[in-house]
Amino acid sequence: MAKKKKLSIAIQGIATSFHEVAALTYFNEPIDTIECLSFHRLCESLKNGEADYAVMAIENSIAGSILPNYFLLQEYHFSIIGELYLPIHMHLLTLPGVKLSEITTIESHPMAIRQCAEYLHALKNVEIRESDDTALSAKRVKEMKLKTTAAIANEHAAKKYGLQILEKRIETHKKNFTRFLVLTKRSHDKKESNKASLSFEVANEVGSLADALMTFKNNSINLTKIQSIPIIGKPSEYSIHIDVEWKRRKQYDDAMHQVLLQVKNLNVLGEYKKGKIEYK
Ligand SMILES: O=C(O)C(=O)C[C@]1(C(=O)O)C=C[C@@H](O)C=C1
């Protein structure tokens, strides 16, 4: 019997990155990952058909929204087919035997650095350096035998690169989640969807945004997130991104028909099943 072809999933970062963990958790089957060292590269990989799906972090419960990714969602017009809330535990990794007093540089992905800001602010005389990926920082410490550099990364990176966990759980708050979106160019089944991500623009007039949001309220639709991003070239104008959840599909459909008349450039970025926040 012919073997089933594995799905290829574009991730930001390399093996053991949080994106790899997110992709393995979401698909829950053997996958081929395509390692991308930027979110732009990740979108290109999906666009040119190298990947079947892409997994993209969009927000973190400590560090907030990854704003550039909202621009990418707008630019590439992929469909969001699912989401995943992944618990994130950050550790300080070094070569075996290294002491904290010997560390002069700490490097990691900027989102990881922001999630550990409290811990990092308390350290004296340590340079904080941004990298493309948590796992890549761990790999660099190992391969370049960097005795005075520590990486902020997860336990999978520690294991893979034989690094010691010098400090455990250095994230600012223990309930730390990153929300990932699963993107595709393919058509997908929306039968089970109870959540949507939308974007639109409103006139710069009294109450225009409030009126649009009231339409969702009046149809019993729960607004779970709102994020505005600038419209490039139109200073002080914004594109509004919202996430909404519904109990009955008809309520969402009714709200959408009404809101269509109130806003400009309404886009449905995806309709999908709401992810669970499960604390481990
Ligand atoms: O550097 C990684 O390991 C990533 O997968 C990137 C990333 C992010 O983009 O937010 C993913 C999850 C964590 O929030 C920290 C970093």
From TrEMBL:
Reactions mediated catalytically: prephenate + H(+) = 3-phenylpyruvate + CO2 + H2O
GO molecular function, one term: prephenate dehydratase activity
UniProtKB keywords: Amino-acid biosynthesis, Aromatic amino acid biosynthesis, Lyase, Phenylalanine biosynthesis
Cellular component, GO annotation: cytoplasm
Coiled coil (residue ranges): none
Family annotation (Pfam families): PDT
Residues at the site labelled Essential for prephenate dehydratase activity: T178
PROSITE patterns: ACT (PS51671), PREPHENATE_DEHYDR_3 (PS51171)
Positions of the Prephenate dehydratase domain: 8-185
Top-level enzyme category: lyase
Annotated ACT domain residues: 197-273
UniProt GO BP: L-phenylalanine biosynthetic process
Pathway named in the protein's UniProt entry: Amino-acid biosynthesis; L-phenylalanine biosynthesis; phenylpyruvate from prephenate: step 1/1
UniProt-listed Enzyme Commission number(s): 4.2.1.51
Superkingdom in the source lineage: Bacteria
Name recorded for this polypeptide: prephenate dehydratase
